[in-house]
Amino acid sequence: MDVPTLFLFGIDIIRFSIDLATAYGLYLIVSLTLNLEAGFTGIPNFGKVLFVAAGAATVGFVSGRLAALALGVNTFGNYNGNIQVIIPPLDKLLAINPVLSLEILFAGFAIAAIIGAVLGLLTSYPAIRLREDYLGMLLLAAAQLFQIFLGGYEPLIGGSIGISVPDFFGWAGNGIELRDVVVLGFVAVFAAAVYIYVERVARSPLGRTLRAVRDNEVASRALGKRDAIMRRNVIMVASAISAMAGALLAFYVGSVTPETWTRITWTFWIWVMLIVGGAGNNAGVALGAFAFTFLFKVTDQIKFSFQGYIPFDVNWLEYLMFAALLILIIAYRPGGILPEKSSATLPWKTLSEIIQSKPKRSTAVLGPRFASESEKVDETGSDG
Amino acid sequence: MLPPRSRFWERRRKLIIGVFLIGVLAIVCFGGFWPLLLRVSVPSYYLDAIIYASLFGLMAIGLTLTYLTTKVPNFAYGSFVTIGIYTSFTLFKLDQLNPYVSTLIAFLFGAASSVGMYLGILRVLARRGSSLIALMIATLAIDIAFVGVFGIFSDYLTSHFGILDSKKFFRLRADFSLFGTPGVLYVAPISLALITATLYLFLNKTRFGIALRASVENPSLARVLGIDVERAYVFAWFLAGGLAATAGSYSTLWLAGGTTSGSNLIVEIFASSVLGGLASIYGAAVGGLIIGATEILLTQAGINLIGSWVSIYQKGVPLAIMVITLLLFPQGLVSIKWKVGLRRLKRPVQGLLYQIRRVCKESWVE
After folding, report:
1. What is the predicted pLDDT for the residue at A117?
2. Per the domain annotation, does A314 fall within a domain?
3. pLDDT score for B27
4. CA of B122: how far to CAs of A329, B82, B135, in Å?
5. A132 touches chain B (CB under 8 A)
6. Which residue, A63, A300, A332, B119, could crosslink A108 as a Cys pair with Cβ 3.0–4.6 Å?
7. Do A177 and A3 meet the contact criterion of CB atoms below 8 Å apart?
């Protein structure tokens, strides 16, 4: 079954919308996790690509092997070497076996999340002990190393040529469009879940604690908040979610190539979304991610019409455009399009009602020594 | 403010440093030197090590200068190196100009773009009160913009002048040879030594140099004394960009180049600067020498001892050194009290010498 087509300005609008929505969902997930780290906790994660790529690489390594094992496809003892022979029968078998496909899909997500969390733990060990600038350098360097490792270490995902991932959405239909709609459904559910999670964290006491750690580390430490452990947990959770997003992308695209995981694609673009939208505000980040993805996809569509007039690749202009946009936003609107709002607390009326309804209990908790002056005066008055 | 250090590292710091140094030395000696003993000629990776070390020394000095003045890690610093690479590459391809000559032009280009970045973007943002993270991401944005500019430039070279290898090119065949070894082997270390010596003289003997040091160490006090702090900072950035471009220009004689080759060096440059302490330009020079030499020699030792697959982890060496530096002595090599350590070593060494002398005397008497 195919999705109907609708052409507008020479662009297939429905096709374009599906692509846009899928890309937006994936970018939204990763940018929300970056918001959790950088926006709420103040961890300058300049190595975001490491965690996303780790998730994708996990899928590239694990999922095909699992499928081959479960379906009894012979790998001749060398999965990466015989990948061209193994993938077509795997695809056929998986297409008629939706339950197994889904099982391996979720297993892939789970393993990617675990790998992401472990990598987050490893990088957080030096990270939580360092100041912002050192931490930024260290994460950037770690991501660079990981990219070289992916490109060089062949047993993992076949070195610089990359690896194919069998199609775990093959059961959704032969036409590529319907498969895309199913993937979009997955991405949408995942993105919505992440949004709700991050928003709930932001509105909870935990969220306020994270902001306290970000704004004044010493004061939060003095109030008994363990900032190092907070940071470690945030890095681990955010990395696990990012790795899952990377895994989803690998399942969707059907291949993992180290070249696509660079400092530009999955660190810098994500930061652009965060800064443009508004760090520390989830709605702002969602808006920033949409603005970025929309601009990006539209340029992708129309850049071929420029190709004849400009003596260079139009992609380079994208780099310049987004870099300039980012710097302008930092200069003229440092909070982003939707700046961070002060954290929501109960209205003063409700608070005073709560206080008035339980006066005795508050005194009992605080103890007689901390009772207010007026109460003391009353006590002495009654005695006399 | 220093990053907090855990007690574990505090207590075992000396032990870990000692074990690490001995381990590195042992690996380099056993893995690196045996080919030297078997062959008469010097293996090429020794040249690699010397050239890498000198180039990273130059780059680390520049990065440290930019960090000292703005206190922002400059992620765009690698692009200044690429400016040097492309200046030399273009002039060599178009006018057959030797990279040693075009180094001067590259210096000016690198310095100009560095000053432009400082005055046009970083200072504007800092005066508008941007946070440290915002400034860091701005430098990353500038790096990406530079990559875009280099891409446009290399496409232009291809389409306009028909230079097909403008995106990725091998070392330029323009170097002279002295005693059978390439000239850059002498030029790069000598340049590093000369530049460090000149900087030392400049910073300690000239009025402007002393003013520069004062503006770095205490800007407000320097301003009170009538020093033009801004001019000093601009000069520091001028020098930083120029040194990076010089290093890039030399590197075309020995290494392959491309649009992102400078940006990819950022790991080593940061590692060198951090090892030097991010606050001392002499420390940075030493840090660059150590990082460059260890990276090549340790990887080569690994290849000799274990297998050729070790070469993937070449960039892991500077990263590991950076992590160890940050955990053990975050203020870098400069902060280690070498004299105290030597003084502590003095007594056992003297005791040993005394014993030897006594034994010798006794045997003489007999």
Report:
1. 95
2. no
3. 67
4. 14, 20, 7
5. yes
6. A63
7. yes
Residues A144, B267: C-beta atoms closer than 8 Å: yes
**Is residue A232 classed as helix, strand or coil in its secondary structure?**
helix
State pLDDT tens for residues B336-353: 777 777 777 777 788 888
Comparing alpha-carbon positions, the chain A residue that sits nearest to B150 is A316
Where is the domain boundary, A260, A295, A326? A260
Rounded CA gap, B200 and A131, in Å? Answer: 30
Q: What is the pLDDT of residue B36?
A: 58
Q: Is A229 on the interface with B (CB under 8 A)?
A: no
A367: tokens are 């103890």
A373 pLDDT tier (thresholds 50, 70, 90): very low
- Is A133 in contact with B73 (Cβ distance < 8 A)? yes
Does A311 touch chain B if contact means CB atoms closer than 8 Å?
yes
A85 shares its domain with A205:
yes
pLDDT: is A196 or A79 the higher one? A196
Q: What is the total count of domains within chain A?
A: 2
Contact A141, A78 (CB under 8 A): no
Q: Which of A225, A260, A295 is the last residue of a domain?
A: A260
In this prediction, residue B12 carries a pLDDT of: 66
Q: Is residue A124 domain-shared with residue A256, that is, in the same domain?
A: yes
Beta strands in chain A (DSSP E): 7-8, 11-12, 163-164, 255-256
**Chain A residue at shortest CA distance from B135:** A330
The answer to whether the beta carbons of residues B293 and B204 sit under 8 Å apart is no
CA torsion sign for B160, B163, B165, B168 is negative
Interface probe with B: pick from A41, A144, A213, A317, most Cβ of B within 10 Å: A144
| DSSP label at residue A162 | -
Which pLDDT score, from 0 to 100, does residue A378 have?
46
pLDDT tens, position by position, A221-251: 898 888 888 888 999 999 999 999 999 999 9
Instruction: Decide if pLDDT at A294 tops 80.
Output: yes
Helix (H, G, I), strand (E, B) or coil at A163: strand
Chain B residues within 8 A of A149 when measuring between CB atoms: 312-313, 316
- Is B147 within 8 Å of A318 when comparing Cβ atoms? no
Characterize A37-55 residue by residue with b for buried, 16 or more Cβ atoms within 10 angstroms of its Cβ, and e for exposed: bbbbbbbbbbbbbbbbbbb
Q: pLDDT (tens digit, 9 = 90+) per residue, A143-165?
A: 888 888 888 888 888 777 888 88
CB pairs under 8 A between A and B: 149
Q: How far is CA B106 from CA A149, A172, B66, B79, in A?
A: 32, 58, 18, 12
Mean pLDDT of A63-70: 86
Q: Are residues A136 and A241 in the same domain?
A: yes
- Separation of alpha carbons B183 and B190, rounded Å: 11
B153 CA: distance to closest CA in chain A (Å): 8
Q: Going by DSSP bridges, is the β-strand pair A163-164/A255-256 parallel, antiparallel, or unpaired?
A: antiparallel
CA distance A237 to A120: 8
Q: What would the mean pLDDT of A281-293 be, rounded to a whole number? A: 92
Predicted confidence at residue A175, as pLDDT, reads: 60
Q: Nearest by CB to A38, which of B133, B140, B160? A: B133
The range of the structural domain enclosing residue A145 comes to: 7-260
